[in-house]
Amino acid sequence: MNTARFLMIAGALSIVSFPSAAASLNSMNEVGAALLACWTPPANSDNSSVTLSFSFKRDGTLIGPPKTTAVHVGGDDKARKAYVDAATKAMQDCLPLSFSPSLAQGVAGNVFTLQFNSPKK
Fold first, then answer.
1. Which one of 25, 65, 95, 115 is CB 3.0 to 4.6 Å from 30, fit for a cystine?
2. pTM of the predicted model, to two decimals?
3. What is the Cα–Cα distance from 120 to 78, expressed in whole angstroms?
4. Which residues, if any, are the signal sequence (predicted)?
5. What is the pLDDT of residues 48-68, one digit of tens each?
6. What is the DSSP string of the chain?
7. Residue 11 and residue 62 in contact, taking contact as beta carbons nearer than 8 Å
């Protein structure tokens, strides 16, 4: 194989993401940060928050849907539902997560909570 062709193939492979090469999460702090990185609060939802409760399987997926444990959203029921739906969607968009072997063994079946917040004004 000539050098130019090799470099072209190597360059193409370097921009492809491989799931097995993804960094594994080693702590629940890293899990929370990964989930919150997927979060975009709905427009006009300043000073709002929702707390979700959930459990993971070892493979980084959820055991059932997340449950809402607290909602602090101004406005009507429609605004509250939109906020909860956005937090739930953020979680779904991030899954499955990639756990390190030791974290995978420890998280399975345990209940965790995470608060999704909007900017405060």
1. 25
2. 0.76
3. 21
4. 1-22
5. 999 999 999 999 999 999 999
6. --HHHHHHHHHHHHHS--GGGSPPB-SHHHHHHHHHHT--PPTT-TT-EEEEEEEB-TTS-BSS--EEEEEE--S-HHHHHHHHHHHHHHHHHHPSP-B-HHHHHHHBT-EEEEEEEPPP-
7. no
